[in-house]
Amino acid sequence: MDALTRRRFLRASGVVGAAALATGGAVMGLAELLGTATNDQPAWTRQKVSRLVLVTLYGGNDGLNTVIPYADPAYHSARPELAYPPEQVLHLDASLGLNPAMRRMKQAWDNKRLAIVLGVEYPSPNRSHFRSMDIWQSATPTKPATTGWIGRWLDGTKASREVAVSFEPVLPPVLAGQARVGSCISYQGFSLPTWIDAATVSALGRPQAGEPEMQARAANSYADLVTMEHVIGGADKPAGSVSTDDGVSGPATGTGGDSEIAGQLELVARCVEVGVPTRVYSVSLGGFDLHADERDAHQYLLGQLDSALGSFLDRMARTEAGRQVVVVVYSEFGRRVRANASDGTDHGTAAPILVAGARVAGGFYGEQPSLTDLDDGDLKASTDFRDVYGTVLATVLRADPERYLDGFRPHLLPLFPPG
């Protein structure tokens, strides 16, 4: 393919302009990332390196129907149409259990690979999706911030751009530092014109002598997208929906996040297995802002999360490198205790965080908030979210938590056994 044809295609498709907008190395192709793999080095140099996978549930996940206080009469009286009867709940102890859709997570709990941190929130909670998510991703609840807590760690360690990677549609603020930024590798928005096929797109990715660097990177990204579609097997899925093994489509994402959590975790697994030096991955699932007819839709979304995360954890358990992976699942806030008139729930406060992986000391951490001693109808937090972040920084990333949490001194949780 001659260079003139190549340039015309790239200009017509808009990819050159899109790539030119990427500054600071924030855009990276999958092939480029896989090319940083360290499998040519001795295995012992990479097997004990811990890796963090952040799973963001956008929209405000209903914590009370995720980790369910099934034995509490106040739970059933506050949301009679949404509450699960005790016999449907996956019991974890005599008072709390998991949503019926979370059978894989129940298995992880039984295998002591799942920790649940109860009642997590930040001081003076905000019920705006966008402000609250800013706070969760910046870890600075008392003032506006322009950097994320992982981004500040990237700054402090002078990390290269492959050290933190997002497989989401856009780079999340959590990976943005002042001088360093993670990379965004998204497989969304890929559709071929009717007049071109995948083989031709792959050919477009081959280097051309003398072309500008940005054009070469942009062209390579097109070939990369073909590879991405093959990896996740999602080229035939409708935009804005999630799908199950039986072909049923779920709710659109609405307040942010991706819809193909399994595909994102597939890419993370592949990177871990080939030895990519990425230390932090960010993936997401959206659609949790369920103000009406919540129960079935919420159970569906939790089933998507459960299936993808369960498969990922099983896959990671097969290798020493995979057994060093820690997954943290969080949302910008929980929901109100009492259901609304539309059989949904409105924006609330404290909710559980899930921490999973072979390194995790499974069990409950913190205290389940009271469903009767409320703050204007909302749960009172029992754990500061920076205690979780601080524990992850100190144990998984081997960093000083105070340095990256704006001077906050966290209470470190015993989520990870010594060694």
Automatic annotation (TrEMBL):
A Pfam family matched in the record? DUF1501
Name of this chain's protein: DUF1501 domain-containing protein
InterPro entries, from UniProt? DUF1501, TAT_signal
According to the record, the residues making up region (Disordered) are 236-257
Species the sequence originates in:
Rugosimonospora acidiphila
Domain of life of the source? Bacteria
Membrane-spanning ranges: none
Traced from the root, the source organism's taxonomic lineage reads: Bacteria, Bacillati, Actinomycetota, Actinomycetes, Micromonosporales
